[in-house]
Amino acid sequence: MHNITRHQVITTVTAPTTPEPDTPKAFGSFARAIFKKPSFSDIEDAEFFYGQKYNEFINSGYLTRLMLNKKIGDVGGSSSKLSDELLQKAFLDNLEASKVIEFYEGQKGLNKEQESKLSEAKKTFASTQKTISDFESFHRSQYDQTAEAKAEQKIIEWFIFNFSFYEDEIDGKKEEFPIFEGDYYEDKKSHYLTLCEDEEDIEDKSLLKNKGIFDQSFETLAKVANLWYNKMGSNQKEIEKSLEEVFPSVDE
What we know:
4 strands, alpha+beta, about 250 residues
């Protein structure tokens, strides 16, 4: 069981939510959804939780990053070394191409040789950028299946489940309530999975208000938790800036 201490401050707040016209009345309304900033004590609890999940994943057969690197090296052998050399060359070629583009781009009166250099640099920049991107995507997909990555997914869930609240007015007084009900992670995870269900599939109709709050706020709360965890913001102003930079198409 995890107890939330009272001195914690709000890290960020979702925009005040007005239900869509077709939102069922049972969903009700709420003032705002908030993600509270975990204290140092909370972070210690989270790290302990991470360690438990990390060991569970290792015992379930997941490799650590170190083990995966060794396996890739053993299996790849010379081909793995060649891949590293090609990647290093791609980085160097990309850097050189960017310098040429920066030097010639926007200049007037370029001769044919200079125009050719600029055109070739743009092609090199694009191709090397793709090589680097493909390499990073490939390795990211492999590391996503390591014990560390799986445990990290769980610790972010832990933060979301324990520090997501909504504010509502009761008898003229504003109060805060947890979005995810339960005393333990497993309870909150079960509640989360219930809220993921379609409205008609939820047997307990008393959960419909929570369902409405969840549907309207969870995406933003999850983004905020991830940004905070990855040290891309520790207060509302920094989080809002990171939201605009990392998710421009969604949050603009």
